[in-house]
Specification:
The protein is α/β, with parallel strands linked by helices. The protein has 3 domains: 3-81, Arc Repressor Mutant, subunit A (Orthogonal Bundle), CATH 1.10.10; 89-159 and 265-296, 3-Layer(aba) Sandwich (D-Maltodextrin-Binding Protein, domain 2), CATH 3.40.190; 161-260, 3-Layer(aba) Sandwich (D-Maltodextrin-Binding Protein, domain 2), CATH 3.40.190.10. It is built from 11 helices and 12 strands.
């Protein structure tokens, strides 16, 4: 078996739960599966599975490697679909879960619909972490780190969080020159919908201490409210670049402490694993990968 075969065998064993079950899916013997796993472990220099007479389970290193392998298989499937469906018109209903986002994201969704008129888009907006399978989504756009290695993923782009305030607020209360200066200001905070905790701001290596001292002049679980409050001069907000940048460009908001608050957040497409890669899903993921980064800035 070549390198890619070894990866596909490893993923199938993880999904099936045993060498014998994986062998039945792949049409080979359990012995052949076991030998393929041993060769793969020898090649990469790590143990992938804990084994005993009754069961197998992933090692911690195996779990990390599995996440990488799923991404490799997803990219390969996407490439195959891209070429094989060059003359096919994607069609059908596509259920998408997306975070509560700015108008820029929505413009990209509309561009997708114009590009693929035979696809009917069904978008559900929520900042909570949804269950793709239980809730019947074809694909989810997710912000931040991904935890579930059973899902297939593709990174679509990155953005940054920006500390911003209106010129009117800064004229009245002064412009913070250091991170510690934020402790004396009215802060507009985002509450995470899934954890129900107030999100930390990216305030450098001592962020936990400084975040604990920030005021909660306004707490909301929707960035549109925090943006409106910042524009109205209520206080300082920490907003994603795709919410803040057009207002920074207009001069209605100022970007604060940029050099002291470097950070980056990933946006990924996530979809359930399984045989095949529907053409409509491949079209959506490819289109988002090509067009979303420009909007994210």
């Amino acid at each position: 078996m070549n390198k890619l075969d070894g990866i596909s065998v490893f993923v199938q064993v993880s999904d099936s739960g045993s060498y014998a079950a994986a062998g039945r899916v792949l049409g080979v013997s359990a012995s052949a599966i076991g030998k393929a796993i041993v060769r793969l472990e020898e090649r990469i220099g790590i143990r992938l599975f804990h084994r005993n007479n009754r069961s197998i389970g992933l090692t911690p290193e195996g779990a990390v490697f599995l996440a990488h392998c799923r991404r490799i298989m997803a990219e390969l499937a996407a490439a195959e679909v891209s070429f094989s469906s060059a003359h096919a018109q994607p069609s059908g209903k596509l259920r998408v879960s997306a975070p509560v986002v700015s108008e820029g994201w929505n413009r990209v969704f509309l561009q997708f619909m114009n590009r693929f008129p035979e696809i009917d888009l069904d978008i559900s907006y929520t900042n909570r972490i949804v269950d793709l399978v239980e809730e019947g989504f074809d694909v989810v756009l997710r912000i931040g780190p991904l935890q579930d290695s059973r899902l297939l993923t593709r990174r679509l782009g990155v953005f940054s969080l920006r500390l911003v305030a209106a010129p009117d607020y800064l004229a009245r209360h002064g412009t913070p020159q250091t991170i510690e200066d934020l402790l004396g200001h009215a802060c507009l905070r985002n509450r995470n919908v899934s954890s129900r905790r107030i999100d930390n701001w990216p305030l450098g290596p001592d962020h936990a201490h400084v975040n604990a001292g920030l005021s909660n002049k306004l707490v909301a679980d929707h960035y549109a409210m925090l943006l409106m409050a910042a524009l109205d001069g209520v206080g300082i907000a920490c907003l994603p670049s795709f919410w803040a940048d057009e207002h920074i460009d207009r001069g209605t908001l100022r970007h604060l402490l940029a050099e002291q608050t470097p950070n980056q957040r990933a946006v990924s497409a996530v979809w359930p694993g399984g045989p095949g890669f529907p053409v409509k899903l491949a079209a959506f993921v490819d289109f988002m990968a090509q067009n979303l980064p420009t909007m994210l800035r």
